[in-house]
Amino acid sequence: QTEFAQIKGNDLYIDDVKATDLVKQYGSPLYVMSEGHIRKQFNTLKTKMIDKYENTLPLFASKSFSCKAIYKLAMEYGVGIDCVSAGEISVALKAGFDPKKIYFHGNNKLPSEIQYALENGVENFVIDNFYEIELVEEIASKLNVMVNGLVRITPGVYAGGHDYIRVGAKDTKFGFSSHDNTYLKAIKKVIDAPHINFDGIHCHVGSQIEEIQAYVLAMNKFVDIAYEIYDIFGIVINKLNAGGGFGIQYTASDHPLEFDDVVSTIMDIIYKGFDRRNMKRPMVLVEPGRYCVGNAGITLYTVGSYKYIRDIRDYISVDGGMTDNIRSSLYNAKYDAVIANKAGEKADHLVTVAGKNCESGDILIKDIMLQDPQPGDILAMFSTGAYHYSMSSNYNQLPKPAVVFTYQGHSKEVIRRQTFDDLVAYDVD
Ligand code: LLP
Predict the structure, then answer these.
(1) Helices (H), 79-158
(2) Average pLDDT over residues 100-111
(3) Nearest-angstrom CA–CA distance, 172 and 179
(4) How far is the CA of 366 from the centre of ligand 1 (A)?
(5) 287 is an annotated ligand-binding site residue
(6) Predicted complex ipTM
(7) Which CATH number fits domain 5-34+296-423: 3.40.50.720, 3.40.190.150, 2.40.37.10, 3.40.50.970?
């Protein structure tokens, strides 16, 4: 139970809305997101960073959940965003997002995407590689605009929940290496590019980070890099982006850090480091995605068929699967769940929750104690707000579920459920 998911009587309520009523109204499976929780998280970014330290900007990492509704909420709290494609930028702009608060990321920004971003007023780029420097310079010069370039450097810190989401180590496709002088060559090239203003440095050590040490190591390294830049080029960096990766609680075995603690640790190291050399303190950015929306999400499924293999395993199947949650099969991610309409009962049945996709790896939860799941029951799976809808697919031509926001006893659809017509919308007859 969290502050917004409560059991009353036998039923699960989300922001005071009965989970089974949501399924009746919007269908199943259903992504429910607590707007109350998202607001709480954005408010933490505001009060513990924007209001507390001058010249800071938390960015919401779009990739975790991108739609117009979330961008509108982020805007309300003065939070910026990071985008990794022209598509994400386009959705944000359609929501009315200020292009000046968009940071454009990605290890292979296409010429068409760079052009789209620049034509639409996006001026902050996280520069990833040498080819990009040439492309950005060429396109910015053609359009006669200036770009602020943050140079992405891999700090060589190895942290985070899974190999695929540990991206700060040496062997990664992202950013310029820091274990040789590659990053210095990149910075020189950016400084020399007439249409790119060298704005600072960026790092991202990984995702679902639960050790403060990862940020401490990366920030100490970045202070050293800032000194080096000052000594070699005579430039004090204007911005320092410490990346995202703030962990959340999926199950009882997760022990996430407090946002406040991570931010004050980061700020402390940077401010002390810059003060030591009398360098003007930089603008500090972070870019959490999962932290903002992860715990807000609850996916509601309807339980269908079952298969009991004597002495081996009891399977129950639900009406979604790897199409709406790829994380279980891709990362072996762990989740908690309850039977929403029996939430007050004792969870005394050991089952494995399977999806309905035609793939034997389509298992949502391996071994969980549930309240005697029967066909027609509603299974509520927690912490599905980040990288679920945004990583969903139409495998097996399953229509994508709707996304519903709940807030103070009310619900509203923010993304409608796909229909069979949507499944052929791009087919050319
Ligand atoms: N900044 C950069 C440069 C990133 O690469 C990422 C995530 C973030 C920020 C946001 O990370 P967060 O705070 O959400 O952990 N699909 C995976 C996660 C991939 C993350 C990729 N980059 C998952 O489902 O766990």
Answers:
(1) 86-94, 111-119, 130-143
(2) 98
(3) 12
(4) 24
(5) yes
(6) 0.99
(7) 2.40.37.10
